[in-house]
Amino acid sequence: MTFVTEDATTARHTGVSASPRTAAMWAAVDEVVTHRQAELGRPLRVIDLGGGTGGLAVPLAVAGHDVTVVDPSPDALASLRRRAAEAQASSRVSAVQGDADTLESLVGRDRPDLVLCHGTLEYVDDPEATLRRIAEVLAPGGILSLVVPQRSAAVVARALAGQFAQARAALDRPDGRWGDADPVPRRFDKGAVLALVETTGLRAQRAHGIRIFSDLVPSALVDSAADRSALVNLERAVTEHPDFAVLADIGTSLHVIATRP
């Protein structure tokens, strides 16, 4: 049984699926969503924690799923509502001002089948506590899609920029920052993230680096649709190739898919 509409199919080939920065991540999310939807025989209940303006929430809603975006920013949620309206997906998107502390009060008896936590864990005061709250609200068999910034990418990027002292700082500092002016409050190492996920009772199913080349290649080299498509295909190929996992380890972000037993 499938709930994918023609509009949803179109959405999968544009926007989030076509950008070199998000295509590999979206492909992984789309795969697990499609599989879980087939298992349950219905659209998924989704919570997007820190989902902001709905870059992922709206495509998922267009695909027929019910998505609640939880974000502390009223301005971001206002943009989300406009984006959902433009996509004619308002009926499947809910905007809630809040954070991880409000998750339990939101879900009630209808626990989510999928929680997205993309670009959020680095900003919270206690990453382990946030993951525990997510694990507590997920339905049995539910999925966590987690995206966090990787330390290794910052080391490589600062070194390539000639900022060798900053590269060394990112390598040595416990928070993975290259200095006090670093806009990212915390970066993660793959082993530490997987250990954190397992500590909260979730089981990691896969973990791979994303945005491996897209943040290093000068924008002038990807100014055509053909160039962007080639870069997207390269990003996807690297994440899926069994012999080149080391390249994924320098991706700007780490994408982890975990499940609740």
Write up this protein.
The chain is of the alpha/beta class and 261 residues long. The protein has helices at 6-11, 23-40, 57-62, 74-86, 103-107, 127-137, 151-160, 164-172, 190-199, 225-240, 245-248; strands spanning 45-49, 66-71, 93-97, 114-118, 143-149, 203-210, 253-259. Strands 3-2-1-4-5-7-6 form a seven-stranded mixed sheet, sandwiched between helices. Helix 7 packs antiparallel against helix 8. The longest helix is centred in the first third of the chain and has 18 residues, at 23-40. It is globular.
Instruction: Output the strand order for the largest sheet.
Output: 3-2-1-4-5-7-6
Uncertain residue segments: 1-14
> What count of helical segments does DSSP give?
11
Question: Mind telling me the C-alpha Rg?
Answer: 18 Å
Strand content: 15-25%
User: What class would the helix/strand composition place it in?
Assistant: alpha/beta
Major beta sheet, specifics? 7 strands, mixed
Question: What is the general shape?
Answer: globular
Q: Please count the beta strands (DSSP E, at least 2 residues each).
A: 7
What is the terminal-to-terminal distance?
Answer: 24 Å
Order of helices and strands: HHEHEHEHEHEHHHEHHE
Helix content: 40-55%
- Estimate the mean pLDDT confidence: 91
